[in-house]
Amino acid sequence: MIQQSEQPLKPLEEVEQEWFTNRHEYLDFFWDWATKIPYPARNSIAFAGLRRTGKTAILHRVFNRLFNEQRHVMPVFITFEPYLYRTELITTYDFAEDYINGYLRSYFAFRHRRPEIHKQLWDFGQLRQFASQTQDTIAIQLIDDYDLLRNDPQSHSPSMRLAAWLINQPKGIAGVYNIPTAIFIDEFQVLADVYDPDLDRIIPLSNYYQKPSESLIAPMVVSGSSVSLLLGRATEGALSGRLRTRILGPLAEGYAVSLVMRLGELLDIPVTEEFAYAVWDLTQGYPFAIESLMTSASPARESYPNLEALDEVVSFELTHPQGELFKHYNGEFHKYSKLLNDGQTTKQVMFWVTQYPDKRIEVAEVAEKIGVTPQEVHESLQKLENLDIVRRASMSMYVGPTEPMLKRFIAYQYDFEIQALSQEQAANNIKTEVSQELGRLTNIVGHFAEIAVGAVMKGFDGQTLDGPRFFSTPNTVFLPRFMHIENRWGVIADDSAAELDLVGEYRWWNEEIEERVTSAWFVQVKYRKEKVTRPDAEAFLTQIDAIQTVKGYAALTNWYVSKGGFTEPAQDLLAESSIYYTDLAQFNALAKVFGYLGFPERVRG
Questions:
Q1: DSSP letter string over 123-178?
Q2: In 371-444, which residue ranges form alpha helices assigned H by DSSP?
Q3: Rounded-to-integer distance, Cα 426 and Cα 439, Å
Q4: Which of 48, 328, 355, 368 lies at a 20 to 30 A Cα distance from 461?
């Protein structure tokens, strides 16, 4: 019987909630997956994401929630993350030791409500002693069997036999003792190449997970920070087709902007809307890049929210040894230095493909430019795919890197190593490119507001909210789940354009005509200090009539959002026309309901 405790315990370290944004979809997905074990039947899952995108943070949070909020399913967390930084392969003996330790830490922590066992990474000796002290018969039997197999003199390959046996133990224990188990194996791609010293050969140990992956009572989430390796060699062979796939991408635009605002508040950094959007534009939502720019050791950070200061910080982060992005990317490439320096061909191909972000790479053109054969280019691209620098788009086609900071780092290395520019010249090239990028952002403040409102609308889920508090209407307001939300959406009516900032469409069942019909929200957003006037409201009414005449929605809801508020004449007209209207304080209160930061009430600094 699993003991119970009301005390909230966290066996695994978590990212602070304030830093954890736009990941609730994944948290809810894995919680639902785990808590329904073993009914209905749940497939095992491959969860892939580039390094520093928050993949492990999600699994830690799910593990801790399973530990704290339910007693039906035992969570098990095993990681092979330390082997990412080793030049030699993991051995079958390494695997066996880490696997049984990871399982027993999770088992003891959950069953005996002792989170420190996991948090303090108890070793095998401590785990053995704890099993004896508590007279835990399940653990004692597992340890005794492990010792027997570990020292079996009759086995041709004792470590391989031990590893294969261990892989099936969680499933066996869950079935025999009726302990539904959710198994999380982090950096699973490490197991695609495991060295067996007894046989002196490399074994794809991941293939041995076929039967465990099909278990109903102990299914797995295998995760990896190398998307190509995890979804390629690590889950091919015997595992092919047996894992559902979830890929963790960068933060969506609105949430990335919100994260910048949130970090500004937490770190007491002055942030403007323009600055927040600029950070999103430069990072495209990769959370570690956002964090690095907001916490940089560069002296220029003291001049935020000046965009020239942001330019300086980007250059520092990518070219200075104290830059967090420099240390991260440099560490990644050092880890694969042999692969990249093998004949220099792979490195030359890598430098070339940075010129083709998210575009098709022409193998023949690259081969001609760097003076090698097309076959060598193909081989190099396959290596670069394993490093997640390029992405395979078809059987023989690749596209270049899409992570903008990675692309800039590689371009800097190209200028320094191949073009033989000085470090100062190469760094200046980054500044020039970033400066040009920031130059496009001078008219984005209004666009930011539309993004923020659209992000909140995407959270609408069919509930009703208090009308006076959020929408300046005496009635409760129904918030539909939108099929899609369009920005800057419009039609041609009477030979002229009619455009709205946001239009959200949804479907509902009309009982009178007994069929599903399409309805919409029309939304206008003003992000300025001045109040919306009556002529502004009249213009909105005109746009509504023009678009509805063309579209003919079954039902229509109209909403005006204004950071500066509304004049009394504007309020009177909007109320008479049954149009919802929301000022700054109301919108921020609404945004908070859906976990969004909202608009800043003032700019500090």
A1: -HHHHHHHHHHHT-HHHHHHHHHHHHHHT-TT-SSHHHHHHHHHHHHHHHHHHHTT
A2: 374-386, 404-417, 423-439
A3: 20
A4: 48
Please tell me the distance from the alpha carbon of residue 114 to that of residue 604, in angstroms, as a whole number.
Answer: 45
- Tokens 């830490």, residue? 105
Closest CA to 569 of 577, 545, 561, 524: 577
State the burial class of residue 182 (Cβ atoms within 10 Å of its Cβ: 0-12, 13-18, 19+): buried
pLDDT given at position 372: 86
Q: What H or E segment, with its residue span, contains residue 551?
A: helix 534-551
User: From CA 463, how far away is CA 475, in angstroms rounded?
Assistant: 14
117 touches 108 (CB < 8 A): yes
Q: How far, in Å, are 247, 507, 544 from residue 480 at the CA level?
A: 27, 9, 19
- DSSP per-residue codes, 304-372: TT-HHHHHHHHHHHHHSTT-HHHHHHHHHHHHTHHHHHSTTHHHHHHHHHTTSBTSB--HHHHHHHHT-
Crossing angle, helix 287-295 and helix 273-283, to 10 degrees?
A: 130
Check residue 498 and give its pLDDT: 77
Q: How far apart are CA 54 and CA 290, in angstroms?
A: 12
Tokens, residue 212: 């465990």
Q: What is the rounded CA–CA span in Å between residue 271 and residue 277?
A: 10
Q: What does the DSSP 8-state code read for residue 284?
A: T
Through-space distance between the first and last CA atoms of the chain, rounded to whole angstroms: 57
Q: Enter the tokens of residue 426.
A: 């190469």
Is residue 341 pLDDT above 90, yes or no? no
Per the CB < 8 A criterion, the answer to whether 50 and 85 are in contact is no
If you write DSSP's letter for every residue of 185-239 in order, what string do you get? Answer: EETGGGGGSEEETTTTEEE-GGGGGHHHHT-SSS-EEEEES-HHHHHTGGGSGGG
204 C-beta neighbours (distance < 10 Å), count = 16
Measured from the Cβ of residue 68, the count of other Cβ atoms closer than 10 Å reads 16
CA distance 326 to 220: 34
Residue 511 phi/psi, 5° resolution?
-70, -30
For residue range 190-225, list pLDDT tens digits in order. 999 999 999 999 999 999 999 999 999 999 999 988
- Cβ contacts of 129-138, under 8 Å, gap ≥ 24: 131/104, 136/108, 136/111, 136/112, 138/107, 138/173, 138/177
Distance CA 257, CA 259 (A): 5
Enumerate residues 6+ apart whose C-beta is below 8 A from 20: 14, 54, 57, 61
Q: How far apart are CA 411 and CA 352, in angstroms?
A: 9
pLDDT in tens, 251-271: 888 888 888 988 898 899 988
- For the stretch 107-134, pLDDT in tens is 999 999 999 999 999 999 999 999 999 9
Q: Is the pLDDT of residue 4 over 50?
A: no
Q: How confident is the model at residue 331 (pLDDT cuts 50, 70, 90)?
A: confident
CA distance 390 to 379: 12
Among 222, 238, 145, 127, which Cα is nearest to 182's?
Answer: 222
Q: Whole-prediction pTM value?
A: 0.69
548's enclosing H/E stretch is helix 534-551
Contacts of 301 (CB under 8 A, 6+ apart): 269, 309, 313
Which 8-state DSSP code applies to residue 553?
-
